[in-house]
Amino acid sequence: MNFRQLEYFLAVANAGQITAAAQQLHMAQPPLSYQLKQLEAELGVTLLNRSATGTTLTPAGQLLRDYAQQLLDLRERADSQVRSLGQGLAGVLSVGVISSSIGATPNAKLRTLTRHYPKVQIRLFEDNTYGLIDRLSKRLIDVAIVRTPFTAPGLASKELATESMVAVVPKKYDHFPAATLKVEDLASVPLIIYRRFEHLFQTTFAAKQMAPFIACTCDDARTAVQWAESRMGVAVVPQSVAEQTSGAQTAVRLIRYQPWRTTLKLVWPEQITPSPLLQRFIDSY
Length: 285
Fold this sequence. Notes:
Layout: H1 3-15, H2 18-25, H3 29-43, E1 48-51, E2 54-57, H4 59-83, E3 91-97, H5 108-116, E4 120-126, H6 129-137, E5 143-147, E6 155-163, E7 165-170, E8 191-194, H7 198-207, E9 214-218, H8 221-229, E10 234-238, H9 239-245, E11 250-254, E12 262-269, H10 276-283
Parallel strand pairs: 3-4, 3-5, 8-9, 8-10
Antiparallel strand pairs: 1-2, 5-12, 6-12, 7-10, 7-11
Helix pairs in contact: 1-2, 1-4
């Protein structure tokens, strides 16, 4: 099994027809069919169900498609990084970002970097903090923007911004006596929380002997704000997310509680020496 065979297989898997894939690859159909049969013979499995109307993937083919895409992506990253090792003036940088990093990227320095070095390509991968840390451990991405709290030994980091939690309050629930809230003020309203902080919030509520109604738990802080805008409850999210996404239907109230402060961090594996390209990216923050 070689990279060319994997490229041929992916082309057929994505096109659903050998004829269409051959046209995309600028080759004749018989050599393409031969390469696919060679790949199946080498692996000892059938990868494609062939019919007069096209092809579909067998379970083995579906599994190989996922691995093939990862292998080709890794090859592309390896080729790019080796070629740009000298000066970091060109290449592809794989960057993980969380949904609540809105406003942190792209920043002015990063825009300057890509303007001065137009051959630098940024590939973004969106996931939650622990999903991105897992991608870093598998070397599927180069660097990530994540948010505390998290536990992940073996990472070098650079702090980007520390901020408080805020309540995004629809007008129907905006009966608080002060613009700045205490945690106890949240006891009487339905809450919409970002799952990333669920354990932190529940620990705090238990310590304060509170049992607020959690109306919704979601995986994206922007979704929490959207639900607050729809008057489904009061969203508790990082301040920067609220400021970037909330609208006229809600008010943003600062929550003064030190344990609920959170920090955005740029992280990368500490056991590696950053390539010139990665170092330029780190320096842009």
